[in-house]
Design brief:
CATH superfamily: Alkaline Phosphatase, subunit A
Strand order of the largest sheet: 5-4-7-1-9-13-2-14
Family: Belongs to the sulfatase family.
Shape: globular
CATH architecture: 3-Layer(aba) Sandwich
Number of helices: 14
Strand content: 15-25%
Number of strands: 19
Radius of gyration: 24 Å
Structural class: alpha/beta
GO molecular function, one term: iduronate-2-sulfatase activity
Largest sheet: 8 strands, mixed
Pfam families: Sulfatase
Helix content: 25-40%
CATH class: Alpha Beta
Number of domains: 1
Keywords: Calcium, Hydrolase, Metal-binding, Signal
GO cellular component, one term: cytoplasm
Length: about 475
């Protein structure tokens, strides 16, 4: 009888020990910091299948979106590369004198801010910047354990004549259609390096923050021929909003100087229709090309069995005009320049959900920090969207974006913009109601029946553009 009792007792101890061990393993897995794969795509519009478009072939982004939370109303805080990235990576709003243009550097504009990669590095993360994350190659250098960018001329032409011209003058043709392998262009090299990074990180014992910055579809629209061949140019049309209404302030329209630096682009006036369609064709080809490169990286993440331990977030640094309002490039506060693709995959929590919550790019920093169990520094002005991931209804229903004198309040369906100088007094205004005018063709700001709305939005804009907005 005693032997039977001892046997039962022994079995109970073993069972309890195994149960506790399994429980401890579960707790360890739950509290283990998640890796972050942080994918930036330069000049990417939300003109993708999961946003309701059906003409750009991007199967890898579509698949990622089906496993993610898709933000239907995400907006950059500054529609220009350098400033947008510095604002996003610090979680801080732009002001009239901070985060202003493409050459913005975080170290110059806001050196005291602890950036997202620095916060993660300080808390045990391996931080790697591959490709274009900040605009400046040495900005916030202390935040990274390593950083890498492909060698070669930034225009990245494969045609010798164009490449030589770019080296001599800085620019060449606005697009290139060459029968080359994917690895010939920068984005193919960035994907290859990203895959090598993942393989090394797999063997490490640290959580990682791997930031991959892809270059396309930024100008020039260079992509291998097979991606151009995906599209029939005869079916490409100019946008419905290819017009500049007289009711819109003249200040809203620029001369797209960024594009005019390239060959064959007229120095003034509209782009010829055939050339405009060829550029749209090139943009589509570049999106398909970068989609393929991102797919290679995501496939490797899965092959290495890192998927379940890795948050994947993908964002475009701002929108881009493809003839909308007869404009090209960014540098305006029309929705086409402000609205961006933003998707986040959180293992075990996302599976293709969509949200119409208004989300600003400064919200990315506090959200990622919360997802990995870290507190954000006081300099972060964004608001975490983790409650949205958890299925909760957000309280916030607004966002603010700014470029030069333009500052825009996005409030529900209303887009209200003022042009202001250092004194904060408006010298031009525009208001669009997206419920009735999604293409932003009818400026309501000067109509008598909308003056109460304009006055209310003007007050709210100043309440929300940030306490340091007018500070020097």
């Amino acid at each position: 009888m005693k032997r039977i009792f001892k046997l039962i007792l022994c079995c109970f101890v073993v069972f309890t020990s195994c149960k506790n061990e399994n429980k401890n393993t579960e707790i360890a897995q739950e509290t283990k910091p998640k890796n972050i794969l942080f994918i930036a795509v330069d000049d990417l519009r939300p003109e993708l299948n999961f946003y309701g478009a059906n003409h750009i072939q991007s199967p890898n982004l579509d698949k990622l979106a089906s496993e993610s939370l898709v933000f239907n109303r995400a907006y950059c805080n500054v529609p220009v590369c350098g400033a947008s990235r510095a604002s996003l990576l610090t979680g801080a709003r732009p002001t009239r004198h901070r985060f202003v243009d493409a050459k913005t550097e975080k170290d110059h504009d806001y050196p005291e801010a602890v950036s997202l990669p620095m916060l993660l590095k300080q808390n045990g993360y391996k931080t790697i910047s591959t490709g274009k994350i900040y605009h400046g190659g040495k900005d916030d250098n202390a935040a990274w354990d390593s950083r890498w960018f492909p060698k070669g001329n930034i225009r990245d032409y494969q045609l010798t004549e164009s490449s030589e011209q770019a080296i001599a003058t800085g620019y060449g043709p606005p697009f290139e259609n060459m029968d080359v392998e994917d690895g010939a262009y920068f984005d193919g090299k960035i994907a290859k390096k990203g895959i090598e990074d993942l393989q090394k990180l797999k063997e490490g014992n640290q959580p990682f923050f791997l930031a991959l910055g892809f270059m396309k579809p930024h100008l020039p629209f260079n992509a291998p021929k097979k991606y151009w061949d995906l599209y029939d140019r005869s079916k490409i049309e100019l946008p419905e909003s290819y017009v500049q209404p007289k009711t819109t302030p003249k200040e809203a329209f620029h001369k797209f100087g960024e594009l005019r630096k390239y060959d064959n682009i007229p120095k003034k006036g509209d782009v010829p229709e055939d050339l405009a369609k060829e550029m749209i064709h090139g943009y589509y080809a570049c999106v398909s090309y970068v989609d393929a490169q991102i797919g290679l990286v995501l496939d490797e993440l899965k092959r290495l069995e890192l998927e379940e331990d890795t948050i994947v977030i993908l964002w475009g640094d701002h929108g881009w005009n493809l003839g909308d309002h007869k404009l090209w490039c960014k540098h305006v506060t029309f929705e086409t320049a402000l609205r961006t693709p933003l998707i986040i995959k959180v293992p075990g929590k996302t599976s293709g959900q969509q949200t119409d919550a208004i989300t600003e790019y400064i919200d990315i920093y506090p959200s990622l920090a919360e997802l990995v169990g870290l507190d954000s520094p006081e300099t972060v002005e964004g608001q975490s969207f983790v409650p949205i991931i958890n299925g909760e209804t957000p309280e916030k229903d607004w966002g603010v974006s700014k470029f030069r004198d333009m500052v825009t309040l996005i409030k529900g369906d209303l887009f209200y913009t003022e042009w202001v100088k250092d004194d904060g007094i408006a010298y031009a205004r525009m208001l669009f109601d997206h419920k009735t005018d999604p293409l932003e063709l009818d400026n309501l700001a000067e109509k008598p029946e909308y003056q109460d709305t304009v006055n209310q939005l003007a007050v709210e804009l100043r309440e929300k553009w940030g306490k340091d907005f007018l500070s020097k």
